[in-house]
């Protein structure tokens, strides 16, 4: 049976990691019941955690936990990917510990793999519970289903293992390791698709685990909206 690896880097995510991993396990169950079932290897990399992230992850059956000392998100994602590859996974699906994936997440990625795609650049949306009404309305007005923007998010990224290995995997970057990987995949001639078929919900917090990332993007949007009349957003 084919194997797909799910890689989740985490740093001090005890508040959100269970939600993330439960959603991944639901996606694994949906894949097992699909017309093209596959085994799922879930690897959470607890990167320099000082809270209960690792313990919570270990309490969820089917999750393999790697504990490392503050390696950084790029190195953590790479360690998880290499563990999944060593387990024989032909496809790697990446998300973040503050995110929640839809039940069809893995089914769709293996469908794309079967069609010959080397990678999926998936969309994310912030948890609307973390946004103000103005911010939510702005997001809805600027994002339209069926028109993925192609922005790269480590919270919703899939790649064929052979293509991943060919370009050298994730680099040990403090942030934007996902963008860096996609740039090298494109340069190598990999066949990538931007898709919003399985959009991932991610935290709408403004202080993330890296200086930039999605939290930084939301801070910029918040600052922009602060200068706008809510009536025209």
Automatic annotation (TrEMBL):
Pathway where this protein functions: Carotenoid biosynthesis; staphyloxanthin biosynthesis; staphyloxanthin from farnesyl diphosphate: step 4/5
A GO molecular function held by the record: glycosyltransferase activity
Key words, A-Z: Cell membrane, Glycosyltransferase, Membrane, Transferase
Domain of life: Bacteria
Every Glycosyltransferase 2-like domain range: 6-138
Glycoprotein is among the record's keywords: no
GO terms for cellular component: plasma membrane
Subcellular location: Cell membrane
Family annotation (InterPro entries): Glyco_trans_2-like (IPR001173), Nucleotide-diphossugar_trans (IPR029044)
Keyword Transmembrane helix: no
Function: Catalyzes the glycosylation of 4,4'-diaponeurosporenoate, i.e. the esterification of glucose at the C1'' position with the carboxyl group of 4,4'-diaponeurosporenic acid, to form glycosyl-4,4'-diaponeurosporenoate. This is a step in the biosynthesis of staphyloxanthin, an orange pigment present in most staphylococci strains.
Homology family: Belongs to the glycosyltransferase 2 family. CrtQ subfamily.
The protein's name: 4,4'-diaponeurosporenoate glycosyltransferase
């Amino acid at each position: 049976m084919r194997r797909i690896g799910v890689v989740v880097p985490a740093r001090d995510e005890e508040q959100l990691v269970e939600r993330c991993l439960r959603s991944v396990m639901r996606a694994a169950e949906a894949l097992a019941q699909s017309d093209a079932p596959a085994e799922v290897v879930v690897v959470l990399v607890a990167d320099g955690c000082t809270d209960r992230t690792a313990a919570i992850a270990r309490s969820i059956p089917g999750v393999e936990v790697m504990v490392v000392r503050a390696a950084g998100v790029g190195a953590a994602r790479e360690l998880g990917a290499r563990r999944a590859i060593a387990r024989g996974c032909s496809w790697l699906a990446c998300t973040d510990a503050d995110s929640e994936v839809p039940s069809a997440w893995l089914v769709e990625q293996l469908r794309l793999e079967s069609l010959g795609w080397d990678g999926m650049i998936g969309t994310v949306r912030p948890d609307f519970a973390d946004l103000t009404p103005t911010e939510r309305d702005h997001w809805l007005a600027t994002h339209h289903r069926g028109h993925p923007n192609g922005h790269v998010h480590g919270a919703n990224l899939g790649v064929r293992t052979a293509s991943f290995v060919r370009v050298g995997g994730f680099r040990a970057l403090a942030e934007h390791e996902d963008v860096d990987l996609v740039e090298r995949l494109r340069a190598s001639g990999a066949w990538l698709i931007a898709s919003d078929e399985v959009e991932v919900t991610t935290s709408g917090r403004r202080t993330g685990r890296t200086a930039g990332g999605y939290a930084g993007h939301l801070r910029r949007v918040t600052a922009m909206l602060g200068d706008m009349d809510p009536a025209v957003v």
